Amino acid sequence: MVNLTINNKKISVPEGYTIFEAAKENNILIPHFCYMEGVHQIGSCRICVVEVEGAKTLQASCVTQVREGMVVRTNSERVRRARKVLYELMLSDHPKDCLSCSRNQSCEFQKLGELIQIEEFRFEGEKSKTSIDDSSPAIVRDNSKCILCRRCVTVCNDIQGVGILNAQLRGFETMIAPAEEMLLGSSACSYCGQCTVVCPVGALKEKDSTQAVWDALLDPNKVVVVQTAPAIRAALGEEFGYEPGTLVTGKMVTALKEMGFDYVFDTNFAADLTIMEEGTEFLERVKSFFYSQNLMLPEFLKKVRIHLEDKDPTLPMITSCSPGWIKFIEHHYPDLLGHLSSCKSPHMMLGALCKTYFAQKIGLDPKNMFVVSVMPCTAKKFEVTRPEMTNDGYPNVDAVLTTRELARMIKDAGVDFRNLPDGQFDSPLGLSSGAADIFGTTGGVMEAALRTVYEIVTGRELPMEGLHVKPIMGLEKIKTAELKIEDAKDEWAFLNGFTIKVAVTSGLSGAAQLMEEIKRGTSPYHFIEVMGCPGGCISGGGQPRPVSNEIRQKRMEAIYKEDEGKTLRKSHENPFIQKLYEEYLGKPLGHKSHELLHTCYTKRSKY
Ligand code: FES
Residues 145, 251, 344, 380: which is the catalytic one? Predict the structure, then answer.
């Protein structure tokens, strides 16, 4: 422990603490700006300066470590004056158009100005050039609002490992952008949107789709269908003052109906469908792998030799639900695309079904249907523009709203969210199992898939407490588990004694680690789940700000609570999924499924 004095208070904290952490732990709050716990600590703004006895200059408390006997003052006249001038200098190079800024009332820079009582603009001088980059379908970068805190640079480089955003040029020309004056839309940006979550001002944000959705809602010739992803219900409430982790599923459904959506469906339904398709695809690949490796070549496999010869034996198979991850692998590991499951992501599957199966059911020409997906993700805005995400010439999904955009629309529509009664999703694309709920958190897709795959192979329930695969739950970057197959059904007897090895990662730097193993030929896994954002969809790039591990944990617990509260907890037991196969799709991986629910990928370059 280190003993020191802050503002005449004697304290002692563990060695290695910064002055900022020591103060915080002892209820002394130091105004700060660029610092973000667990994300960014490089001391770029200097707002957190303090006076340290014996030091010539003021010290940035978020990067200065405590020392034995240190005497610190956080609020002296010198500190207060310096903090104010630092703020005013940043303000002098800011457009100050708060009333028309998307971050009005939720801007950290605005809040800081209020905290340190700025009442006039003392400094006016040269300004950085205004340049708005809206070349990408997902993210807009407005350089004029950027205060160069570099949080986005840390997230893009150190946490996600994508390395697109960096400081370019110098002086008043400095801007945070891709190298070589490249636009986001032509760069290898994954569009994960983690930069938009940490940006304290309006410099990085999702591309707005609210007007397109209002236009559809107000068009009397359009039937407007909306679907909501599993992670929305665990975070939307935060925009209306609820504690993180409060489930608002019923209120969300009612709000969407009050806004004028004709049908409110649940992306969870398609998450169950994804498990049926992806689980079957995994088992097919395992079968083909056994055949291609000449492993145990059982009687059963000899019989289906011809059937297996043209099947893909590529393992490990990797999940394909996360569009940020897909764009990342297309740019950085194009030679490994064969490892991706061919399944479309759940909301694209649901969109395809809305415009075919459901449109036929209600006798509607799909050209008059407009499908909106409410997603925790900015990359979904790019995904819906991919040319392969169409059927019969119609896009599967017409517009994507992030959780933040939906909250803005609910407020704009004058809906009193907190006082709404609980509503129910519409049928038949609204019923889902608990396995679908957990798609919203890291490890959830893998657990949902194992619940179904294990039961298909053995005829028994997954032998885990509460159906949870504990080693792959939680927020660690890479998690692994093993599942031994014993007493398999006759058809799967060749798998007896086989141990399925799985890995789960969230965040793109973890994904890169696992891809390097595959490239080297040392990957021991058969099945890998990758989510592009740390923690999975619960903290996707379109979710409410701020996000910390504590908030991630609460959202994750809410998702597991939703799963555990259901009687139906396995995708293959969803009666509406069974009916969909009976009535329309035939069987998993059948002809119709391939047409509507599966896709292909594009090799892209890094530059
Ligand atoms: Fe410490 Fe920015 S908050 S330098």
Answer: 380
Superfamily of domain 275-342+432-548+558-597: Fe-only Hydrogenase (Larger Subunit); Chain L, domain 3 (3.40.950.10)
Whether pTM > 0.85 for this model: the answer is: yes
Which residue in the block uniquely carries the two structure tokens 């891709």? 178
Of 3.10.20.740, 3.40.30.10, 3.30.1330.50, 3.40.720.10, the CATH number of 2-91 is: 3.10.20.740
Q: In what order do the strands lie in the sheet with 369-375?
A: 263-266, 223-228, 369-375, 399-402
Q: How far is the CA of 378 from the centre of ligand 1 (A)?
A: 28
Tell me whether domains 219-268+347-419 and 275-342+432-548+558-597 share a fold: no
For the Cβ of 45 lying below 6 angstroms from any atom of ligand 1, the answer is yes
Q: Which of 41-45, 285-289, 587-591 shows the highest mean pLDDT? A: 587-591
Interval 480-522: pLDDT, tens: 999 999 999 998 998 999 999 999 999 999 999 999 999 999 9
CB 4 within 8 A of CB 66: yes
Q: Is the pLDDT of residue 206 over 90?
A: yes
Query: What's the confidence (pLDDT) of residue 305?
Result: 47
Determine the average pLDDT of the residues in 34-39: 89
User: How is domain 128-206 classified at the architecture level of CATH?
Assistant: 2-Layer Sandwich (3.30)
- Between helix 403-412 and helix 210-217 the angle, nearest 10°, is 50
Taking the centre of ligand 1 as the mean of its atom positions, its distance from the CA of residue 34, in whole angstroms, is: 5
User: Rounded to the nearest whole angstrom, what is the distance from the C-alpha of residue 16 to the centroid of ligand 1?
Assistant: 17
Domain 219-268+347-419: CATH architecture, name and number where available: 3-Layer(aba) Sandwich (3.40)
Active site residue 380: yes
Give the residue-averaged pLDDT of 228-249. 97
Compute the radius of gyration of the chain from its Cα atoms.
26
Q: Could you tell me the residue ranges of all domains in the chain?
A: 2-91, 128-206, 219-268+347-419, 275-342+432-548+558-597
Distance (angstroms) between ligand 1 centre and the Cα of 44 equals 6
The residue that leads in pLDDT, 298 or 358, is 358
Query: For residue 306, what pLDDT is reported?
Result: 43
Contact 329, 605 (CB under 8 A): no
> Is the CB–ligand 1 distance for residue 35 below 6 Å?
yes
Instruction: Identify the active-site residue in 108, 206, 239, 383.
Output: 383
Ligand 1 proximity of 33 Cβ (cutoff 6 Å):
yes
The answer to whether the CB of 90 is under 6 A from ligand 1 is no
Quote the crossing angle between the two packed helices 108-115 and 77-92, to the nearest 10°. 140
Cα 599 to Cα 607: distance, rounded to the nearest angstrom: 25
- Establish whether 388 is a catalytic residue: yes
Question: Of 563, 510, 506, nearest to 540 (Cα)?
Answer: 506
